[in-house]
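Protocol step 4 of 6: structure prediction from sequence.
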Amino acid sequence: MSTYRTIEIDSLHISYREAGSPLSPTIVLLHGFPTSSHMFRNLMGALADKFHLVAPDYPGFGNSSMPTVDEFEYTFDHLAEVMEKFIEALGLKKYSLYLMDYGAPIGYRIAAKHPEQVEALIVQNGNAYEEGLREFWEPLKAYWKERTPENADNLRQLLTLDATQWQYTHGVRNPESISPDNWNIDQPLLDRPGNRDIQLALFYSYGSNPPLYPQWQEYFRNYQPPTLVVWGKNDQIFPADGAYPYLRDLKNIEFHLLNTGHFALEEDGETIALLITNFLTKQLQLLAA
């Protein structure tokens, strides 16, 4: 059973879900856009008997504080800084990171800064290579290059109900297996006054991530964190082209392309839970030996 907690970080209320015994190995779960820790609700239940799970909502997402863009600098550097302080405030010294979508650039900033704390990586549709930024990203790249109202307007369609529903249903085997609760929870949060400005600020800030890819790849090569890749291969946002390059840099890697879409947990959550259990049990035994 999950508990729902709040902790104050830099005068922000950061909401998070927690499940499992704190005496068990910890997994910090970092969510994607446009969702929150809600995306991990089923996975946490499936893993709580063996792991300690912590899933925060970033500022501007889920149930965490949502200061305006004038009150808070919505950049990936800043979100990573808040999440780093969150991990520290909870007293987590060793943990694995589950990285998905926005969770990847946030988590890799933390991992590259604190490699000694990270026991393993679980990468689900989270990019760290130029190969992963394909056609979907062209309007965003134009925005990174010129932050004009026109280029911003081209991205507003990504904040609509149709786009949110598409993120959940595109590329899945059976759309009827995907709960409408997902977009019916995410979209009202996106529609809050001021939230679209927040999301546009983060769309722009995403341009700060590709220049850091070489640094993250160096972290992979130098520290060789045990890594489990569980990737929805039909994802148009982060296609499988971005998954394969992990095989170049990581030696201790288990690699699975799943026949589903962007939010792979919605259709293949049971499979992913089993893969995580088997992988981390093996890796943590090796670390303890």
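Step 5 (inspection) to follow. The mean pLDDT is 97.
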